């Protein structure tokens, strides 16, 4: 007995239609049922070819075509030729549409678009972790933005916040006693953002940090003189680089991120790249 075919067709990749077809075929384990996936259906001529082949061999069709016009055409042609054709997505769209307050986009490939956006976010988060705190300056070249500033100016939280916006951010602490990596001067200044803060605000932040760790709040790390020394050094570095500088004294991470994203937006626009 000749094997039968389920044509799994779609106006996108067709993975969902194929999965359903395979799950169905597995229930008929005493027969040979092949699955033929046909993706990117976008015109009636393609549907006609599938219909003809299904009619010639007595095969079946299942599909996840989103376009109402193509969906209706497929079912009309299948019915005229007495070909079993199952609409996998249509009934679900109708059910959700009956309870949703908005209309479906009816755009093919939305799941994969969402998947791509998700993986971009994951990639940006992994990037922020890998290139946090100056651990590997070689990542500066691959970053969308490099954040520099003295300790406790929220460089890491800012990098992570930007990562959730799918922006690859690396950061580097500026410490007078630590030489600057040469990679910092190998990238355009517009890809660098310097963070500065009021010394007394930073004194409070650092003192609270030491207190939370059970350490002496009078440590040199939190003294005004040391903080002013670090900030003066940081500003010298930023002037040398000629990078944009943001004062984060009374700004939330969201506000700072908004400024940084505007800088990235301008950079991408100037380069003719995609928008955020």
Detail the topology: elements first, then pairings.
Layout: E1 4-9, H1 15-25, E2 33-38, H2 44-57, E3 60-63, H3 68-80, E4 85-87, H4 90-99, H5 110-130, E5 145-149, H6 155-163, E6 169-173, E7 192-196, H7 199-212, H8 224-241, E8 245-247, H9 253-271
What does this structure look like?
This protein has helices at 15-25, 44-57, 68-80, 90-99, 110-130, 155-163, 199-212, 224-241, 253-271, and strands at residues 4-9, 33-38, 60-63, 85-87, 145-149, 169-173, 192-196, 245-247. It folds into two domains: 4-108, Rossmann fold, CATH 3.40.50.2300; 111-271, Rossmann fold. Helix 2 (44-57) runs parallel beside helix 3 and helix 5 packs antiparallel against helix 6. A four-stranded parallel sheet has the order 2-1-3-4, with helices on both faces. Strands 6-5-7-8 form a four-stranded parallel sheet. The protein contains nine helices and eight strands. It is an alpha/beta fold and 276 residues long. The model has no long low-confidence stretch (mean pLDDT 89).
